[in-house]
Amino acid sequence: MVLKKSKIKQRIGIFCLAITTGCANIPETNNQNIDMKNPMLSDWTGPYQGVSAFDEMNVEIIKPAIRKGIKLHLAEIDKITENPEAANFENTIIPLEEAGNDLERVFVYYGIFSSNISTPEFRKVQKELAPEISDYQSAINQNEKLFLRIKKMYDKSQQNPLPDAEQRTLNLIYEEFAMQGANLNKADKERYAQINKELSALYTQFSSNILADEENYVTYLDEDQLGGLPDSFKKSAAKAALDRGNEGKYAITNTRSSMDPFLTYSTERKLREQVWRKYYSRGDNNDEFDNKEIISKILKLRDKRVALLGYENYAEWRLQNRMAKTPENAMDLMLKVWPAALARVKEEVQDMQRLAEQEGDNIKIEPWDYRFYAEKVRKQRYDLDGEEIKQYLELTNLTQALFFAAEELFNYEFKAVEENTVPVFHKDVKVWEVRDKSSQKVIGLWYLDPYARQGKRSGAWATTYRGYNKLTGEKPVLASNNSNFIAPAPEEPVLVSWDDATTFFHEFGHALHFLSANVEYPTLNGGVRDYTEFQSQLLERWLSTDKIIDKFLRHHETNEVIPQSLVEKIRKASTFNQGFATTEFLASAIMDMKYHTTDPEKIDIENFERETLKELNMPEEIVMRHRTPHFSHIFSGEGYAAGYYGYLWADVLTADAAEAFANAPQGYYDKELAHKLVKYLFAPRNAMDPAEAYKKFRGREAKIDALMRDRGFPVDSIK
Asked: Which residues form a coiled coil (predicted)?
């Protein structure tokens, strides 16, 4: 998952999921001199042309820093609009691209507080600032003088185009302003801004509620309740309990990184059900942290907002500048894959039910049984033990594997930065310097925040603290990957599952996308949501290549390379359980699109999910990967709203591109193809239309056939 937004959105203060698009009503700060000395507003100093001052972060000073940064940015915008000269690229777009640096630095810290080290104190600040940030964003989005200058340039460029980079920058900026209501009349602009303000508060509350449920619902186990659990998991669970003041107990936290392995290995069926219910009922407990009413309000407000712009529904508005273009195209892709996924689930359940009966378990497979019996079937069919695989997937080695892939494909080399050279926001965070191996030019820094902890949101994601563009100084990129691996007990290794190792590669793909950027202007360093997951999904494929297996998949105790026989089992099992994986994802993606193409007045949040999935013949043994009340991708902000399908859209490109590498003369390490990969698919970011960029790489458009083959589904099942 990537948190970085398009650069034009960054310049108007959109940095993290908790912040949304939203006529300035910014409270005055008490002491201007203090504000100017605020370390969160200050220019970054130190090595690498300046780095984030994470060692000076403080919740108490985030509020005045945001408010001062907003005033500074709005003043920069006023300077542009007060220019009496006719608008041109040099006096309007360039200063617009350069504006907002002070506030952008503050939002780096704001994003860290929001995602990595949230506290009750910060959540109060976040709730207070949300409407102010929305007012500020509307003050720019709906600035008539600014938009008039942009529109005049845009209209003129339709007859007399600018050079390519300038024209694409102008197009993207104009499009963003138009989508945010810049063409509306005064009354509608005011209503649009008010809606954004209301939404910003709802998004913040939604996120806070999820985090509260993750922190408040912890399952504590005794020694006699650990049946089936691997030793490494037990040690991590003991540490999690100790960290929460429950020494002698074992904590199953309410996050995917804890829930998933517990459901996979625990022999305690009643406890599996208990953990499952706690996890999948986040935001749905009919208490002060319940999200159902919030979701209803969000959907209604989104619908009213896009109606002001003349759109039939939110999805139609959202997809106009995505690769899919329309909700119908996105839904068509999902429904082509859905029947094959359901058919595979039916087979998987039959296999699990048969095995349960063979073992004397008089049960019917339920959602809390799926992972447990799937693992048993995997062992039986492929003689493949997930815990055995983990012995060869040690986090330090996997990190080196990431670096090796980056060296082979991008010619990058990574070197650990000496401790205390670069400030970090938590002791767990490590930093590496990234250089071009040939020229020794510093490309950037890579930060890794690997472990789960209280106050850190669940999942894995990537972001940048500073991106690259030629206009604002070509400074080294500051990129970050964030995971939720369970922190090990002292002196113990961090062993991860194959799925978690794949996710590690995925998120590093986002980081490489940031690091390899080669664009002229900040706006071009953005991305198209149903395309930006493609690069990261593609990088996952290098985990199972021979070179990485031989060099880095080594036993954490003996250093022996993972046996070839085990590798073959992994490869043969690569399409195993794809029914479950595809169906739980597609259920969420389809529901996302249904929510945003249905009249929200007709949606009963209590029942809509259940009734819609029933119409789709959703297997009762599986639930959505992200149930509605905790579907943060689409309800804690707008980055993935009506866009969760994008992972599948990107996976069509991924499967097709992977076949290109598989068939290349040197396979996944073919230098000629790697050069095209970087040149057309990574370095341009949004400086080139994604569809055109892919055709330059592949020589043609991607085909869905590769996706079906990749998942072991029959190609002829596509309708």
From this structure: none
Q: Are 434 and 446 in contact (CB under 8 A)?
A: yes
C-alpha dist (Å) from residue 657 to 217, 534, 697: 42, 9, 9
Provide the whole-model pTM.
0.87
Buried b (16+ CB within 10 A) or exposed e, 153-168: bbeebeeeebeebbeb
The gap from C-alpha 668 to its chain's centroid, in whole angstroms, comes to: 25
For residues 350, 351, 352, 353, the Cα torsion angle rounded to the nearest 10 degrees is 50
Nearest to 93 by CA among 689, 685, 523, 525: 523
3-class SS string, 259-293: HHHHHHHCCCHHHHHHHHHHHHCCCCCCCCCCCHH
- Residues 6 or more apart whose CB falls under 8 angstroms from that of 576 comprise 374, 377, 378, 381, 382
CATH 3.40.50.720 fits 7-141+143-179, yes or no: no
Contact call for residues 518 and 480 (beta carbons, < 8 A): no
Q: If residue 373 lies in a helix (H) or strand (E), which one and from where to where?
A: helix 367-382
**Where are the domain boundaries for CATH 1.10.1370.40 in the chain?**
7-141+143-179
| Confidence band of 315 (pLDDT split at 50, 70, 90) | very high
DSSP string, 572-641: HTTTTTHHHHHHHHHHHHHHHHHHTTS-GGG--HHHHHHHHHHHTT--TT---SS-GGG-HHHHS-SSST
The pLDDT of residue 36 is above 70:
no
HSE-CB of 167 using CA atoms within 13 angstroms: 12
Residue 719: pLDDT band (50, 70, 90) is low
Closest CA to 263 of 372, 336, 179, 168: 372
Query: Which of these, 383, 377, 376, lies nearest to 565 by C-alpha position?
Result: 383
Alpha helices per DSSP H over 2-89: 7-11, 32-36, 59-81
| Rounded distance between C-alpha atoms, residue 593 and residue 645, angstroms | 8
Reply yes or no on whether the pLDDT at 13 is more than 50: no
* 8 A C-beta contact, residue 321 and residue 179: yes
Cα–Cα dist 234/251, whole Å = 9
Note whether 6 and 176 are within 8 A (CB).
Answer: yes
